[in-house]
Amino acid sequence: MESALAVGPMFARHIGHRMYRGEYYILQVTSRLIFVRDWDVDIVGQWERAGNDMAILSTYNTNLEEDDIDQATGKNTRFERPVLCDASFEGDGAR
């Protein structure tokens, strides 16, 4: 798509929402996502283990590269959780 024609992710989400026709599962992802083998089986299993029909699974994706996928198994070889924020204390905490 030409960048001049792009209207942003919120409009794309709006269009996706309008396409909903009562499907049992909905998946919304970023365009940078790399899928591993059996990702669908894994995510449905996670949702079922939540034991709640209204469960919502959400995550912030790891920076996965093509070489982080095992070519023989199709599975992720990089196991880490991204850190979105950091907190620290300054001084000794005494007032």
Tell me what the structure shows.
By secondary structure, this protein is mostly helical. Helix content is 23%, strand content 0%. The protein is extended and about 55 Å long. The termini are far apart.
Task: Name the features.
mainly alpha, 95 residues, single chain, 2 helices
Topology record:
Blueprint: H1 9-19, H2 39-49
User: Which percent range describes the beta-strand content?
Assistant: under 5%
What kind of sheet is the major sheet? none
Rough outline? extended
The succession of helices and strands, N to C, reads HH
Distinct helical segment count: 2
From the alpha-carbon coordinates, what is the Rg to the nearest angstrom? 19 Å
Distance between the termini: 57 Å
By helix and strand content, what is the structural category? mainly alpha
Helix residue percentage: 10-25%
pLDDT averaged residue by residue: 81
Total number of beta strands: 0
Brief summary:
The chain is built from two helices and no strands. The chain is an all-alpha fold and 95 residues long.
